[in-house]
Amino acid sequence: MPGEVMPVGASLSDQDLKDLRRARLLLEGPTMASKLTQKLGRPVERAMGCLPRFFRSTIELSTKAALNHSVKLASITMRDGAPGRAAPGMHQMALMVSGGLGGALGLATFLWEIPLSTTLMLRSIADIARSEGFSIRSPETLTACIEVFALEGGRQKDQPGSSNYWAVRLALARVVSEATAAMAAAQISQGSGAVIPRLISAVAARFGVILSQQAAAKMIPIAGAAGGMAINLIFIRHFQRMARGHFIMRRLEQTHGPEVIRQLYRSVALPYTA
Question: Which parts of the chain are beta strand (E)?
Answer without folding.
Answer: none
